[in-house]
Amino acid sequence: MLHMFYQSVMASTIFFAAVCWGAGIKAKDANRLNKLIKKAGSVVGCRLANLDEVVRDRMVLKLQTIMDSPSHPLHNTVDKLRSSFSSRLLQPRCSKERYRKSFLPSAIRLYNSS
């Protein structure tokens, strides 16, 4: 029962926000969320996935849904980044650190490494 509550209320809120933050989350905030997840795991009585694992999985999944859905606004942008030689995506040009840590470059980096 506690595990169901965690998955339906806490995890959905935390991990939706984590995909929005992506790699731009500060280390201090990530540590706080990891402590919260660890504490919830001890209350629930089982090991829960930490923030890094979930962010990695959900960002790649979100990027794949963007690539599979032609009606998504980012589909054309991501489609132009496909490599003609392999199944990888080309990294977009990032002149600012803020853009480098945003969703698209971070998700492409994770997608290419998996």
Detailed description of the structure:
There is one protein chain. By secondary structure, this protein is mostly helical. The protein contains 6 helices and no strands. Helix 1 runs antiparallel to helix 2 and helix 3 crosses helix 6. The model has no long low-confidence stretch (mean pLDDT 87). Keywords: Signal.
Key phrases:
114 residues; mainly alpha; elongated
What is the string of helix and strand elements? HHHHHH
Q: Please state the structural category.
A: mainly alpha
User: What is the β-strand count?
Assistant: 0
Roughly what percent helix?
Answer: 55-70%
What's the number of helices? 6
Beginning-to-end CA distance, first to last residue: 34 Å
Which quaternary structure do these chains form?
A: single chain
Could you give a short account of the major beta sheet?
none
Low-confidence stretches: none
Q: What is the gyration radius calculated from CA atoms?
A: 16 Å
Q: How would you sum up the global shape?
A: elongated
Q: Mean pLDDT, nearest integer?
A: 87
Beta content comes to under 5%
Number of domains: 1
